[in-house]
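WARN  no MSA supplied for this record, continuing single-sequence
INFO  ligand: magnesium ion
INFO  echoing inputs
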Amino acid sequence: MEKYTGEPHNAVETEAALSFLKKSVKSLPGIGDKFYNSLQKMGISTVRDVIYSFPYRFDMFKSPVYGEKGVIGGVYENHGIIKTRNGKRMLKAVFRSENGFFSAVWLHFKGDYPANTLKKGETYYLYGTVSKNDGMPSVFHPEFLKPEEVGALRPVYSIPGAMPQSVYRKAAETALKTGLAYVPETLPDKILEKYKFPGIKDAITTLHRPETEANVSGIISRTHPAYKRFIYEEFFYLQTAMEIRRRSYSAAEGIKFRIDKDFLNKIKDIMPFRLTSAQRRALVDIFNDMMSPAQMNRLVQGDVGSGKTIIAFIAGAAAVDNGYQVIIIAPTEVLAEQHFGNLQKFFRNSPYSACLMTGSVNKKDKAEARNLIASGAVNFIVGTHAVLEENVEFFNLGLVIVDEQHRFGVRQRKALMDKGPAPDVILMTATPIPRTLAMTVYGDLDVSVIDEMPPGRIACITKSYPAEKLNDALKFVEEILEKGQRAYFIYPLIDESDKLELKAATKSFDYIKRFFKNKNVGLLHGKMKGEEKKILLDGFKNGSIDVLVSTTVVEVGVDVPEATVILIENAERFGLSQLHQLRGRVGRSSLQSYCILVTSQDITENGRSRISAMLKYTDGFKLAEIDLEIRGQGDFFGTRQSGLPEFKFANIITDAKILQAAQKDAKEILSCDPELEKEENKIIKNTLSAHYSGGASYLGVG
Ligand code: ADP
Ligand code: MG
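INFO  complex generated
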């Protein structure tokens, strides 16, 4: 393919250009409805997507070696059908090369097709596995290459299995030939020069058609400037968007709360335990933010069980004492109910009022709650994001607390913040991102880390059992139940709406019920109504239910300290972050806790690595590292849920240096040109609004 030599940086995103790139892949040769559907599922639906989907591998056409794939070229002589030794019919065509004769053979053929399409005296290049047949080299079911393809590197794309590479390659070739000219530059000149990055068109060309082996190894090792450009670009736009957001936060006039000795003494009196020093540090950070006139945007990061909830409650009480309302948002109804219950327990002797707003609160109660909230009669509002969607008017919202922040999009957060005059915001997460990285990744937030567990906690003991030994595992659980402690049983329902899977869980439930004859066993799953869920969970909390059989609805946040054992069936089907979250359900008291991983026979290599990591480590950070190793590039330890973008090129761990450089550049550019109005920065503004606002909602700009 030709190198693009035009003016790479002056391209303007004209309507025509944009609409060409937005054309469906169906407009490309060879792609009909069938391929279209499966390509779309892989995220390739437009010409632009094709241009931006690079090969993951390059094959070289080698000269033939017996037993391997290779290319032989020669002039076609003749063909015929012959009988093999074992009586099968075989189509055979003979070619002449400089080194003598060779043949092509087919076992599957129609009439004498495809040999009858060959023209006498013409030169052909055959690609396929080469073997010796009747004393001459022979290519089995060859692919015919064009002369210009021979000796070239052949790109291999990540496409649906049913689609031949050759078909997709042709489509990609067309997309590049006609579409590349329309692709606008996306990085400013200054950046390209600073890092010696190629322009966008050159970079795309190199990644699709690297031409030299040196380029290929640079791409595969992710060190080629064309590849690095895309890593940088992903980071740069993430950081630019974050910086824009951070600037808008700090410009926002916030509330200046008063927090005095009286308040601190009051809290001290109602505290059921002493805060750990890590909790105290986080609380001091929060108080300082609250007392300052700027709006608070603080992320509290702490491993499961580190005690984030109490911090949120205390901060909430401070806001209420200043006359403001507080909203606590949880990712699941189960967790919202729990927070609501704990809040009432914690403040039982305080004059605070609270209401619950979840999807399953009935219409009448909701309407009443809405009135109470609007009139200011209620101090704490606990709910799921349903609260956001239901047009709640606050009397005077002063503090927003979002638990397990990784389940919430930035847009939702923003929707809430727009409800009041810049309320302070606390986000709580258990996603273990290393501290230095967290500051870059959550560049728009201040971060407090709770890196200490409440005192008296004993490390959870993790064991694994193969499915055949399930009864041994159950006997082990029985011993613990006999001591009056409680147990979770978890089933991996990938899809709660899948009837078959639910049936499997119900069947296991029956089995467990029969096994623990003299115990109370309850079944909890996502398809249940809110009220049913609440009754079950309350029963488990107060001890009238000993064993809670559940799908992963208990994954996040559920806190029942008397539960000391969690048994996870088909544990190999869970990701490491989920396993870690699930294990966090036990070990919430000073009693010894156990996590039992039951694995089925068809466990994969990766599944096995996950299980052994769980057996070996309890630390979330360590597990996150291992998760990264196992998965390599791509999604790591729940980044998919963490509110972080999924990067196509970049890896926030291994490319940390580039991330930091991109952050520095973004900050510098915006401090000189906050509105991105300078001519040289127009590209940034255009790219942000064209590609990083609609599609990538995490950025929350535009
Ligand atoms: P997470 O950080 O996972 O949200 P929680 O806030 O649910 O953790 O706290 C876990 C458990 O530890 C709860 O039962 C809570 O009451 C208890 N807890 C929190 N802080 C302390 C502390 N300083 N001392 C003793 N127990 C604590
Ligand atoms: Mg929690």
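The chain has four domains: 1-54+163-184, 62-149, 185-324+396-454+625-702, 461-617.
INFO  checksum written, moving to next record
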